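Example record

One chain of 362 residues, shown exactly as stored in the release files.
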Amino acid sequence: MKKFKKERFDIGRRRALCFVATVPLVSMEAVWANPVLDALRRPAFVAPHVRGGVLLDVAKSGKRIVAVGERGVVLFSDDVGATWQQASVPVSVTLTAVNFVDEKYGWVTGHSGVVLATSDGGGTWRLQLEGKRAADLWRAEASAGSKNDDDSDKRLQEAQRLVSDGPDKPFLDVHFFDRKRGFVIGAYGLIFATADGGETWSPWMDRLDNPKALHFNALAVQGQRILIVGEQGLLLQSVDGGKTFVRLSSPYPGSWFAVAALPDGKWLLAGLKGNIYTYSPAGFSQCEVPIPVTIGCLSLMHDGSVLALNQAGQALISRDSGGRWTSVSWPPGPPLTAVVELDGSRLLASSLRGVRELPFPK
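Predicted structure tokens for this chain:
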């Protein structure tokens, strides 16, 4: 879409892999024909071995646990992770994030501008949005709002470029307030919202101050407050449910890959080289972190503690709202990408080699 620095290749560090191949190893002629379109049209391959594959996020839908990952794989467990089943998914692109509002309704984002929805707790999924349609929506809005000035011309050019590029831009995170209202964010500053459960979508790019189209890597929500974090220190905050956004001055120039909303109203942000900060109306405060490795996930636990997962496969825990962090002693294993609580003593994590059950840090 444009020339960019090496850092722009870091867009998927939050989910550990963003530009991984999304096409299974079939004939090379089929792969090179049009891999993006093929992956959008081909349902996820169902096989036992996918349970040990790359998983990039995990969430709860009631008592059910749902994990998503590479090649359109969605796994779910109804017995706290003892056994897993593979869901029916209409695409085979890499899936990056999953969010449920209750035990039935949930949404998943993925590569190629994919948004999937479920109304049965994650057993079956349907396609609601993909990159070509998203680009067409952006071009239609940019054309309708054109005022023959420089800003309008620039928006229309960007929209037309998005259409010309094809459906190759990933969405990286998703949040729904309820069964109707939600939004997704992703690469090159893409953000789309819905007010009808995903039946229709509207581009929100005009609402955010992001002239360089920097990547949106992650988001967190506190009531009507939204914080979006991205590359090159990008921070955008809304206090009215997304109607308006204000750009914040970042305390460091590197990219952010994770954000969490704390019970006390503060935000916790994490990025390159172990940088973690808290943010409140009083400003930013840097946290003490013992390991200088890029952090891709922040997860709030039931007891108020916060877990941070880094790219080296290590975990850190803070029990004072992010002020100080200590290393977690877990058995060696592949890098973890996300984590949920099973009960007060066990956790279940998605990883680059399937799911892992782990003890709750003491």
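Notes: The helical segments are 28-33, 35-41, 131-144, 150-165.
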